[in-house]
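Milestone 3.1: sequence recovery, worked example.
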């Protein structure tokens, strides 16, 4: 895919592999334009002869547009990476949650049959207090892991 074929709308619908390929092509074109602009500036400095104004303005505008597209691609890649991470996390946690729910159900059934009502209420209150502090720690860890660069 050529850089001139890339638009913000096309970036939004590209898959990861296609996006990486397009980004590589765009970066190569961006490097070429940047190098040409540097060469024109160097030549102007050495010889005093400036590049064609129209060419320079078109090249500079193209460089700005390619830079914006590069940023849009980087953001889209980040979004795709976070979506995949969330999907992986959900798939991994589902069996663990099911196992925990079965354990808690069984534990509560046995505790209800074994303990006196006051002891059961005290146990539930203490467990809820512990669960709230554990949930806060878990949320903090999840937030830290989610926002790692």
């Amino acid at each position: 895919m050529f850089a001139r074929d890339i638009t913000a709308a096309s970036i939004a619908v590209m898959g990861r592999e296609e996006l990486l390929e397009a980004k590589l092509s765009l970066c190569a074109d961006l490097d070429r334009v940047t190098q040409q602009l540097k060469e024109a500036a160097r030549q102007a400095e050495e010889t005093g002869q400036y590049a064609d104004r129209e060419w320079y303005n078109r090249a500079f505008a193209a460089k700005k547009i390619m830079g914006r597209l590069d940023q849009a691609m980087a953001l889209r890649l980040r979004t795709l990476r976070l979506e995949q991470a969330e999907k992986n996390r959900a798939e991994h946690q589902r069996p663990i949650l099911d196992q925990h729910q079965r354990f808690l159900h069984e534990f509560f059934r046995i505790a209800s049959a074994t303990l006196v009502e006051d002891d059961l209420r005290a146990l539930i209150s203490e467990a809820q207090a512990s669960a709230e502090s554990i949930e806060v720690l878990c949320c903090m860890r999840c937030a830290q892991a989610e926002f790692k660069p």
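The longest helix spans residues 53-114. The chain has a mean pLDDT of 82.
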